[in-house]
Amino acid sequence: MLTVDFSRFPLAPGDRVLDLGCGAGRHAFECYRRGARVVALDQNGEEIREVAKWFAAMKEAGEAPAGATATALEGDALALPFPDESFDVVIVSEVMEHIPDDKGVLAEMVRVLKPGGRIAVTVPRYGPEKVCWALSDAYHEVEGGHIRIYRADELLARIREAGLRPYGTHHAHALHSPYWWLKCAFGVDNDKALPVRAYHKLLVWDIMKKPLATRVAERALNPVIGKSFVAYATKPHLPRAAAEAAAQ
């Protein structure tokens, strides 16, 4: 289930991509399939080991084209182990709401992104997330949980302050908002509640089968209750005079 829409976020074979806070690796895998040179980074060592296994399995199965590479790396988003201007593309999906120093994370992403490079940032959307917080303290008051809820204009202001130029936004995963409302209402750890189990089956069916009815419904509902807010931006090229001054 991808949150980034690659029709709005072009990726060319050979692009060097950083999936920052990659989690289980869904976006990293898609970039690898598209021929990119991918680095998937997360602070969770267990997840990184699983991502590395999947990269190896994809290579063995021939799922990635010639020239594509994939590396899974454990690391700190606030101290990325890469030189300046290392990547053509950076993806940070459902990460910034977890990190107290979100400005520091953005600064690191801008540092490692090449001028002219592209970045995709996704966070939980304000409205659906507020409902979850209102229904359940356990949803967010956990170690490593969500510590803030972004309004769209707030996130875009953060992106601009970091020196990036936003060029597009959208919402995603409307069908997942009711699922999380049910989880929060019946208990975030209570997967046995009948409404939760029934809705989970619907989501699995939708993901696996991609029926037209649910695709149309989600597209219609995304502007209203989309679970995620997605923003795309570019890192501008410095004017020649400014670049020369920065190099001195």
Automatic annotation (TrEMBL):
BP GO annotations: methylation
PANTHER family in UniProt: GERANYL DIPHOSPHATE 2-C-METHYLTRANSFERASE (PTHR44068:SF11), ZGC:194242 (PTHR44068)
Protein name: Methyltransferase domain-containing protein
Superkingdom to which the source organism belongs: Bacteria
Keywords associated with the record: Methyltransferase, Transferase
A Gene Ontology molecular function term of the record: methyltransferase activity
Provenance organism: Streptomyces cinereospinus
InterPro entries (UniProt xref): Erg6_SMT_methyltransf (IPR050447), Methyltransf_11 (IPR013216), SAM-dependent_MTases_sf (IPR029063)
Coiled-coil region(s): none
Family matches, as Gene3D superfamilies: Vaccinia Virus protein VP39
Methyltransferase type domain span: 18-120
